[in-house]
Amino acid sequence: MTACGSAAVTNPETPSSAYIHVPFCQHRCGYCDFTLVARKDHLIDDYLAAMKQQLATVEPGTELQTLFLGGGTPTHLSIEQLRRLFSALFDRFRLADDCEFSIEANPLNLSIEKIDFLNQRGVNRVSLGVQSFHSEILTFLERDHQPEQIFEIVQNLQARIPNTSLDLIFAVPGQSLSDWESSLADAVGLGIPHLSTYGLTIEKGTSFWSRQQSGLFDLPADDLAGSMYEFSLDYLGSRGLQHYEISNFARPGFECRHNEVYWTGYPYYGFGPGAASYLNGVRRQNHRSVTTWLKHVAAGESPIAEQEELDPESRAREAIIFGLRRRVGIDLAEFASRYGFSIPELAESAIESNIAAGLLEQTETHLRLTQSGCLLADSVVVDFL
Ligand code: SF4
């Protein structure tokens, strides 16, 4: 197994990270608006052929410091299908010795045989969609696993791939503060080195959206959601899991290096439906519809739906928005030297008003969100656009 830690990307302006989108799930959970298809496994062969074709555009031997397979559910693929995907990937990409190779997984897809296969192929980080340790919450979220199954699967996983992250969701209708506290305690009790916590949001177009519009449920009040978030910060911090990004907590050395590439504005490749890339200052996004993406690739056409070349000021403003997500904040001197603008020059009034509101704080060297600012991050960053 490849060692995994927090080694820095060696030349951050040269792309050495790749995201691969695997858009298949057994079932579309009622709250999910990600790019995926459910119960359409007959498309997997076409998808693998299209990925092979897309990856053929990469220079052979391109070295990666981080590789992230997300979805959807990449582990919904069988071992044989994963073998074909990995073969297409490793035809072009070469993993650096200390590469972080992550895969997103659903608990019930992780047989010991599949975990062993992933481990042998160099996967050294697994992000597991656990969401809750409470049966009623899991049922509400339309997840296919139950709490008692999580413990055995995580133990099997950690025995082989210790760098395991769990996703947990709070602010779910019917969830009490003590439910949330006990889910966090269960995760900590498993010795997990990384946790991602997300407040449930209801996106237009999902089945939860229609149900909410019909009055079938209401989200918990903002103050309960806020209490859950604040409890996460206090409790996980006291258990050695540092809050290093708005939604992410890690023991030292287990921060997700791939996501750090996004938050620090470094380039990356992106392949698959809906995948984004950032190369040579150009952001591109592939078609989100799986069938549209497949049709374009099969016809030998570009699967890119949108692209934008950022001018220097837009690049700097975007860097503020991503950089504020990190708890360490933005190094003011480094920012000015990298982007050619000082942050006050770009957004003096946004800084002043958010500091006055207690949502931002500035030291001699850094600008960062306060704890209250983390809760309202979306409204703070809008001021910097
Ligand atoms: S398993 Fe994850 S990606 Fe798949 S539908 Fe559910 S929430 Fe979305």
From TrEMBL:
Entry keyword S-adenosyl-L-methionine = yes
> Keyword Chaperone: yes or no?
yes
GO molecular function ontology, one term from the record: coproporphyrinogen oxidase activity
Domain (Radical SAM core) spans: 10-242
Which example biological process does GO assign this protein? porphyrin-containing compound biosynthetic process
Where in or outside the cell?
Cytoplasm
Q: Which Gene3D superfamilies match?
A: tm_1862 like domain
Gene Ontology cellular component list: cytoplasm
Q: Which UniProt keywords apply?
A: 4Fe-4S, Chaperone, Cytoplasm, Heme, Iron, Iron-sulfur, Metal-binding, S-adenosyl-L-methionine
Q: Tell me which InterPro entries the record gives.
A: Coproporphyrinogen-III_oxidase, Elp3/MiaA/NifB-like_rSAM, HemN_C, HemW-like, rSAM, rSAM_horseshoe, rSAM_sf
Principal localization reads cytoplasm
Which family is it part of? Belongs to the anaerobic coproporphyrinogen-III oxidase family. HemW subfamily.
PANTHER family the record matches: COPROPORPHYRINIGEN III OXIDASE, RADICAL S-ADENOSYL METHIONINE DOMAIN-CONTAINING PROTEIN 1, MITOCHONDRIAL
Q: What does this protein do?
A: Probably acts as a heme chaperone, transferring heme to an unknown acceptor. Binds one molecule of heme per monomer, possibly covalently. Binds 1 [4Fe-4S] cluster. The cluster is coordinated with 3 cysteines and an exchangeable S-adenosyl-L-methionine.
Name it: Heme chaperone HemW
Gene that this polypeptide is encoded by:
hemW
